[in-house]
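Chapter review: from sequence to fold.
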Amino acid sequence: MPFFRKKKKELRMTMRGFPGDANTCKCLLMAAEKKVKLDVEVLDVIGGACDQEAYRAISPFGKYPYLEEGDYSTTSVNAVLSFLDVRGQGGLLNPPKAQLFGQQNYWGQVSRKLCEPAVETLVKASIYGIEGGDLDAARAQIATVLDELNGFIDNKEYIVGEYSFADVHWTAVAHMLTLVGEQDMIASRSNLSAWFDRVKARSSYAGLPSLDDVKNKQLRSVA
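The token string follows.
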């Protein structure tokens, strides 16, 4: 009797997110890096979609991005990134050494807490015409953080050893700065500029939202 190898079930998920959101960009990057086929739906957070009753029924605190696979779901960037990393192909992006693991988490937290709120202020004002923050103060905050990161990655190919979660976080930041016309904040810092050239050369970068995508509130699935 001939032996037939059971065909592996295609890995495909659905994610709700917003193209002008750095965290959504991170999840798109991770899906592409881990070869996950990801269908996407736009959650218009600018229009208040995450506060609607229907969305709160599946995400009680209004967190996003929101990911589904079969009858499983999870929400918020850390949960989605970790799920994609484990469920996707290849080795995990978490560094195996404790020191690098700690550095990865530190720079991820710096990105989320100290840089991305200021980037969001620029995105809302520049692309959606929503005023609500001091733009000069936002630029100053971003510059202070980028100066520290630029010094840290001197003579490094990626932020902490091999490509990791830290690179995913900061690629999204650099991409959003480029979309709002603040690319010189990266280009003027030699170490960051060289690092950004390397991450842009990865195939995963090509799937990030364009400026037109962000303006028109469009997302492209990860094939």
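Two observations follow directly from the output. Residues 3-8 have pLDDT under 50 and may be disordered. The longest strand covers residues 12-17.
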